[in-house]
Amino acid sequence: MSRNMKTVTFLCAMLFAFGLSAQSNLSSGNAEKRDTTVNAAASGKPTENSPDYVIGADDTLHISVWKEPDLSETLPVRSDGKISMPLLNDITAAGLTPLELKGSITEKLKKYISDPRVTVVVTAMNSRRVFVTGEVNRPGTMSLLPHMTVLQAVAQAGFTQFANPKAIYLLRTLDGKQEKVPFNYKDVVKGKHPEQNIELKPGDTIVVP
Q1: If you placed Cys at 135, which of 23, 32, 163, 183 could pair as Cys (CB 3.0 to 4.6 Å)?
Q2: What pTM was computed for the model?
């Protein structure tokens, strides 16, 4: 074999090996990206970037106005659902998404600032909580994950040896009135009465007698 043929053969082998290595690295990177995406989705945790997150009382917001440091600050949402900002005084935040609140603040600031650029970030989602009390291992407040059910909450809280899983009930306040919803753990885990395993809402209280 001539020297030129050997050189060409060597270069082809090197290019083939490089191609295999690049493809392997790309596949590995894609797999890692997929794993990260799956893990983030599986956590089920809402984030400040969730477009459909609805702000509630006790949440903490960071309001930033570009080139306006005096208007940029971290604020708690009061129990009345409002926040207070310089120039604007009280602004309703509860019941709005971060994007909707951003639009509201932007419109109000146009009276004082030319082309205001506002950013709203939820830094603490304290409004999304439920309460578990009674004969459970971990009583108290619990972060409310998206689509969390009664069964998932009691499973996370755990039962004491004195718990009566057949007589659990949920307390929920609607229009100023408290409702009591029964939940029979024994039946639900057997596939019976699935209608009792309702989706929780912020402020719900689960009682395990």
Answers
A1: 163
A2: 0.58
